[in-house]
Amino acid sequence: MGMMKEFREFAVKGNVIDLAVGVIIGAAFAKIVDSVVSDLVLPLVGAVIGKIDFSNLFIILGSVPPGTAATLDALKKAGVPVFAYGNFITVAVNFAILAFIVFLMIRQINRLRREDPAEAVPPAATPEDVVLLREIRDSLKK
Predict the structure, then answer these.
(1) Four-CA torsion 47, 51, 54, 57, nearest 10 degrees
(2) pLDDT reported for residue 52
(3) Are 86 and 55 in contact (CB under 8 A)?
(4) What pLDDT does 119 receive?
(5) Is pLDDT larger for residue 6 or for residue 42?
(6) Does position 132 have pLDDT exceeding 70, yes or no?
């Protein structure tokens, strides 16, 4: 029973719960970034470069069965080996955008964490007994 109690204490710690929440939010955030990349950024980049869809950029590495369409999905379903570099470009752009967004978030968090010098806590008041001892010392000096 000691191991179960120890596991429960571990699982209920704040760090583990924070990590779980972070993973869940990260998965949802990854979907948003994936949509931004595939629906907004890549079409713009494709329009500038001349290719409309990066996901259909591939090189066929094997023989194509007759009657198979020359699309990536159809070739994969037919079991034809393909070098799908368009998917890699999509994932690489997705990663770059995600990394940049995380960088901006961490930068902002660090900026908020820095203490403003104007908001520095003033030094604590001198205790009354020390003040009285200083007064006695000063009066003895006179």
Answers:
(1) 180
(2) 58
(3) yes
(4) 63
(5) 6
(6) yes
- Cα–Cα nearest to 49, from 61, 60, 39, 57: 57
Least confident of 2-11, 73-82, 125-134: 2-11
Spell out the residues 6+ positions from residue 75 whose beta carbon is closer than 8 angstroms to its own. Answer: 58, 60, 64, 68, 69, 82
126 has a pLDDT exceeding 70: yes
Q: Are 81 and 61 in contact (CB under 8 A)?
A: yes
Q: What residues does 60 pair with on adjacent strands?
A: 82
Residue 42 burial (CB < 10 Å; 0-12/13-18/19+)?
buried
pTM metric for this prediction:
0.51
Between CA 121 and CA 23 the distance in angstroms is 36
Tokens of 119: 């908001």
Whose structure tokens read 């929440």? 21
Residue 131: alpha-carbon gap to chain centroid: 53
